[in-house]
C-alpha cells in the first residue's frame, strides 16, 4: 500500500512540474502575443504598473477576455456624414475656443464609440479598454483628449491630442466586415487642416 502511495505521489509531482513548465511557456507566448496585439499600448500599461510585466499582461489579458468577442456595429444610414460635419466644426471652433473644442471632441468620440457597439462613455475606462483591444494603435489619442479636458492642459497639448484622436475617429467611421485589418493611420498631410495653437506664426512657402 505504501508503495502505491509513493508511486502516486511521484506521478502527481511529475504532473505538477509538467503543468508548471507548460504554464510558463504559455505565459511567455502570451506575453509575446500581447505585445504584438497591443503595440505601444502594451508599453504604456507596463509603465503604469511600474515595469511589472506580469501585472501588465494580466490586465491586458483580462481586456481581451472581456472585449475580444465584441463585434463592431454598423453606423445608421447618414451617421457617418453627420460625424464628419461634427468633427469639422470641432476643428473650426478650436481657433477661438481650444478647451471647448477639445471637450466636444471627447463627447463625439464617446458617442461614436458607443454607436459602434463599445461600452458607453459614462464608463470611460471600460470603453477605453474595449477600444484598446480592437484599435490598440489608435486609442491613445482619445485618451489624451479625455485627460486634456480633465486636466485643463495647455492649448498646444490639446491641439496635439485632438489631432491624434482623429486616427481613432476615422477608424470608427470605417465600416469593415471584421476587425482583422485596421486601417492605416492618417499621415500629417491628411490632417493638415487642424489649426495650430493661437499665437503661433508659420513661415509660408
From TrEMBL:
Keywords (A to Z) from UniProt: Membrane, Transmembrane, Transmembrane helix
Asked if the keyword Transmembrane belongs to this entry, the reply reads: yes
Q: Where is the composition biased (Polar residues)?
A: 176-185
Stretches the record annotates as Disordered: 171-205
Q: Any stretches that span the bilayer, and where are they?
A: 6-24
Provide the protein name: Secreted protein
Which source organism does the UniProt entry give? Streptomyces roseoverticillatus
